[in-house]
């Protein structure tokens, strides 16, 4: 690099400097929109943390949904290797969100209490992307559509997802196509209902785990799903413990009892047979 280079505003180590005609980093990423979407409502310094923590979570949720829709399509098409790759990615994203709680836990009760009155009735309970993720994983609950206005895109998406087989339903259909004897009412059911444990599904997964060499792809699928559910459980646990640390046992802004509601959610089992079969191994 010559001294001239350092002085020339059109060149720094050969880097392109003029983007009047070309697409720049910020153009490509839509940074003008993203970086002007933080609107603190309180005078409190810590609200920026609260906003960015949620916005980044929503971006990761968006990617998780993008991946999970593709996982379901790949399972349906019997394309397992790409589905494995995506499931592994989603589990790692979930791990990242688990660790993100460490940042939010730096928010102390008095700091949050200064922000909370400005949140009104808004709550993560109303996150349509979170609800869609629960639905695509099989934790269906039609009653929760009501927080979304009927005419909105979010409502339509959630309604469509409520009626569609979950990723786990697709895995079970794959078991049947692989020759396992799955109960007919498990293969064609009311998809709006949450996953319920089924003995024929448990027996099929048990065979897979008893002969991994014979059923390697299904075995790998099962373990990828267990990885994902494990990460999700950690997320739920960190949520409720962080909430207890920050607001104690106050009622939630979304109207639920708060910590006791979130604790109840720790009982949700997304892929029941994949966990219950372990006792038999
Ligand atoms: C100080 C931080 C937080 C507090 C005090 C808090 C508190 C709560 C409470 C009390 C609920 C129950 C619903 C209600 O009545 O409002 C809830 C639900 C929820 N929160 Fe948070 N939360 C916090 C951070 C977060 C973060 C960072 C996320 C990430 C996106 C999040 C996502 C959710 C979701 C998705 C629900 C619905 C859970 C379900 O229905 O199973 N929350 N939160
Ligand atoms: N439910 C929380 C409020 C809350 O956490 C929240 C409010 C607005 C936007 C995101 C939120 N995060 C998760 O619920 C509370 O009761 O304090």
Question: Can you walk me through this structure?
Answer:
It is a single chain. The chain is an all-alpha fold and 281 residues long. The protein is globular. Helix 4 runs parallel beside helix 7, helix 4 packs parallel to helix 9 and helix 12 runs antiparallel to helix 13. It is built from 14 helices and no strands. The chain has one domain: Methane Monooxygenase Hydroxylase, Chain G, domain 1. The site of N'-Formylkynurenine (NFK) has 10 residues, from loops. This is Tryptophan 2,3-dioxygenase. Its cofactor is heme. Pathway: Amino-acid degradation; L-tryptophan degradation via kynurenine pathway; L-kynurenine from L-tryptophan: step 1/2. It catalyses: L-tryptophan + O2 = N-formyl-L-kynurenine.
CATH fold annotation: Methane Monooxygenase Hydroxylase, Chain G, domain 1
Order of helices and strands: HHHHHHHHHHHHHH
Largest sheet: none
Portion in beta strands: under 5%
Q: In the residues, how many domains can be counted?
A: 1
Cofactors and ligands: protoporphyrin IX containing FE, N'-Formylkynurenine
Radius of gyration: 23 Å
The whole-number mean of residue pLDDT values reads 96
Shape: globular
Give the distance, in angstroms, between the N- and C-terminal Cα atoms.
Answer: 66 Å
> Residue ranges: pLDDT <50 for 5 or more in a row?
none
SS-based class: mainly alpha
Task: Tell me the total number of β-strands.
Answer: 0
DSSP helical segment count: 14
CATH architecture: Up-down Bundle
Helix content: 55-70%
Oligomer: single chain
CATH class: Mainly Alpha
